[in-house]
Specification:
Helices cover 44% and strands 15% of the residues. By secondary structure, the chain is of the alpha/beta class. The chain has a domain at 3-190 and 226-253 and 310-328: Rossmann fold (3-Layer(aba) Sandwich), CATH 3.40.50. Bound molecules: nicotinamide-adenine-dinucleotide and 2'deoxy-thymidine-5'-diphospho-alpha-D-glucose.
Length: 370
């Protein structure tokens, strides 16, 4: 039995990781720390909290005293650090929060974990996994090879720059202090519990509500999509068997441009409405409710400033060293993801009420059709 600290465990990937961890290693003690910022939701964790399968702590990764007390009480020898501000558009509107959590938060957690493990003589068998992003590598041209672990860092958004800074800190702690840390740089995730500000859930929910589907620019930007369950499998593998001090890139091998992704979402919804006639009564504003296509809602709008053109990941190292490969191709992962949002209307209605509406006005109010 081991004791694990997962930060950001009430976010999209964090919740999926908590469930994946519980399933894979049911006897471990899981301590979940999350500040419960706007993207957090503990609904799916509540049964685990209630039956004491996990310990949930509401708190900030910048709070050194709190982190110290968690190490004293639970002695975690594994840390999976996911807590972050994660949305590129928000980082453009309000970068400071990104520096606070992604840079200072990572620094505080690293420093406190190092002290705790040193004092306990645990450095030799502890592991700190820093969960990062492919965005630190910048943007690829159409013919460039995918990002590898030796690609130079060229972050373009405040979000990417803050994650890059945190990666550099982790690396410096490994080299300078012997911190037993590893880094993963992963491509775009999708799947259950993703906050509706991100492309895939945003498009599903807008289509269901008959709202325009705001594709930035000409929609030619490319992302490498990875199902969140494949990401969680990779994180478990790296934490268990990765080499200390190493970086592992994690990708889906599913490069798609945004036009095609949004088109696929529309087609998937159209088919769902044709299959299940009850959906028309639940979502009467959706064009598919009256036999039309969700594609009629697609609207090209003002681009994201500094919009990275293409991300693609070379996961050869992860596959070669740890035998980890993604199992879900994009078309097979998208269908159940769309179905998950159809089946969890109350979840996204909760998430999209209140402050979320103000964000939508702020981010989309100024964008004009192009
Ligand atoms: P998310 O925004 O859904 O979740 C982030 C979680 O961190 C939230 O629950 C939030 O409450 C928590 N948090 C924020 N500030 C905090 C603070 N100061 N202290 C404690 N908790 C705090 O993000 P996600 O998509 O689940 O991403 C998780 C991690 O994975 C991030 O580090 C992100 O950079 C990285 N990542 C995400 C993707 C992706 O496609 N979503 C891809 C690669 C890497
Ligand atoms: O690559 C990994 C990263 O993927 C993670 O590190 C980030 O945390 C995660 O948010 C994601 O970043 P992106 O900026 O790629 O994801 P997002 O869902 O915001 O956008 C995906 C693409 O869709 C991007 O090219 C911008 C575009 N887009 C997005 C939104 C929200 C639109 O065209 N319209 C939109 O309304």
């Amino acid at each position: 039995m081991e004791s694990i600290l997962i930060t950001g465990g009430a976010g999209f990937i964090g919740q999926n990781l908590v469930h994946a961890w519980r399933a894979a290693r049911p006897t471990d003690r899981l301590v979940v720390l999350d500040a419960m910022a706007y993207a957090a939701n503990i609904r799916s964790l509540q049964p685990l909290i209630a039956d004491r399968s996990i310990v949930f702590v509401k708190g900030d990764v910048r709070d050194a005293a709190l982190i110290r007390s968690l190490f004293e009480e639970h002695n975690p020898t594994r840390v999976a650090h996911l807590a972050a501000e994660s949305h590129v558009d928000r980082s453009i509107v309000d970068p400071e929060a990104f520096l606070q959590t992604n840079v200072l938060g990572t620094f505080t957690l690293l420093n406190t974990a190092l002290d705790a493990w040193r004092s306990a003589g645990a450095l030799g068998h502890a592991r700190f996994l820093h969960v990062s992003t492919d965005e630190v590598y910048g943007s690829l041209g159409p013919a460039d090879p995918p990002f590898s672990e030796s690609s130079p860092y060229r972050p373009n958004s405040p979000y990417a720059a803050s994650k890059a800074a945190s990666d550099h800190l982790v690396r410096a702690y490994v080299t300078t202090y012997g911190m037993p840390a590893l880094i993963t740089n992963c491509s775009n995730n999708y799947g259950p519990y993703q906050h509706p500000e991100k492309l895939i859930p945003l498009m599903i929910i807008h289509a269901l509500e008959g709202k325009p589907l705001p594709v930035y620019g000409d929609g030619s930007n490319i992302r490498d999509w990875l199902h969140v369950s494949d990401h969680c499998d990779a994180l478990l593998a790296v934490l268990a068997r990765g080499r200390i001090g190493e970086t592992y890139n994690v990708g889906g091998g599913n490069e798609r441009n945004n036009r095609d992704v949004v088109g696929l979402i529309c087609d998937t919804l159209d088919r769902a409405f044709a299959r299940d006639t009850r959906l028309a009564a639940r979502f009467p504003s959706c064009p598919a409710a009256t036999g039309g296509s969700c594609r009629s809602l697609i609207s090209y709008v003002t681009d994201r400033p500094g919009h990275d053109h293409r991300y693609a990941i070379d996961s050869t190292k992860l596959a070669g060293e740890l035998g980890n490969r993604p199992g879900i191709d994009f078309e097979h992962g998208l269908e159940p993801t769309v179905q998950w949002y159809l089946d969890h209307e109350s979840w996204w209605r909760d998430v999209t009420s209140g402050a979320y509406k103000a964000w939508i006005d702020k981010n989309y109010g100024f964008r004009i059709a192009v």
